[in-house]
Design a protein that fits this description.
88 residues, 2 domains, 72% helix
């Protein structure tokens, strides 16, 4: 989802109010705390970096076909084996 430069400028300058759908989109896309977007209070990011990476991975994984999901799982298993070998 994209917005025009002029709309972005108007939002940033306070000429127009940021709509709820944009707030939710920013929050879900960039894992930014909705309360922080609306008020500036609280933590900027929602969740730990690990949680954010997992959600991103889950979103991408869900878009893949079952065959490609199996391929990703095989690659992850291989990476885990490599990691175990290098820690010894």
């Amino acid at each position: 989802m994209f917005i025009s430069q002029s709309l972005y400028s108007d939002i940033e300058s306070g000429k127009i109010e940021l709509k709820e759908r944009y707030i939710r989109l920013i929050s879900s896309q960039f894992h930014v705390n909705i309360e922080w977007i609306k008020t500036g209070n609280g933590e900027i990011f929602s969740g730990s970096p690990s949680d954010i990476r997992f959600k991103y991975l889950k979103d991408i994984f869900g878009q893949l076909s079952p065959e490609l999901q199996d391929c990703v799982l095989d690659h992850l298993k291989g990476l885990l084996k490599v990691q175990k070998k290098t820690k010894k």
